Amino acid sequence: MAGKKQFDVDAVLDAAMVQFWRAGYADTSIDDLSKATGLNRSSIYATFGDKDALYLRCLDRYAARYGDRYDQALAGGPAVDAVRAFFDVTLERIADPDVPDGCLIAQTAMTTPVLNAAIAARASEALGRQRARLRTALSCTELAASDVEDFAVHFAAVNQSLAVMSRAGTSEAELRTVTDISVNALAQALRC
Q1: Highest taxon of the source (predicted)?
Q2: How confident is the model at residue 28 (pLDDT cuts 50, 70, 90)?
Q3: Which of 153, 150, 14, 130 is nearest to 70 (CA)?
Q4: Cα-flanking dihedrals φ and ψ of residue 103, to 5°?
Q5: Where are the domains of the chain?
Q6: pTM of the model
Q7: How far is residue 95's CA from residue 79's CA, in Å, rounded to a whole number?
Q8: What is the CATH number of domain 9-191?
């Protein structure tokens, strides 16, 4: 049937996302995307648009996939347990052998100066959503509003640093130590 896609769009987006995640935006060519997805260049352009448009779709896909997991982690239980579960989502992703090390959003944020404005803005929005998730989870505690904001900023920064550190080969035990220190700081603040 003419016009019917002969491929699974979700599978192609996943393959493109992993390619961008592994190599980065600048070091991924349309030919690399063609090899990763199994589509020819014209099919990529016809279906997804240019490289920027495809990258934005991949960022959105990544943010939704892991954002849902973060939302679930932060939804239940006391704040200390919720924040620990939040970090567990990241540590599980880092330990997953089926995905590249690091974080596509953190990687994008680090290259913001060389990206187009739409991609840079999307990465910034994703980081903002992460802080907002944390802020919401912490707002039900007895912490002052300024402390809630400070912890949300801190936890978001720690979370992004875990991705960078994992990409540099930091061990899982060391990454766990980083999260434990942050969670323990929250526990102490809540006891005061």
Answers
A1: Bacteria
A2: very high
A3: 130
A4: -145, 130
A5: 9-191
A6: 0.88
A7: 24
A8: 1.10.357.10
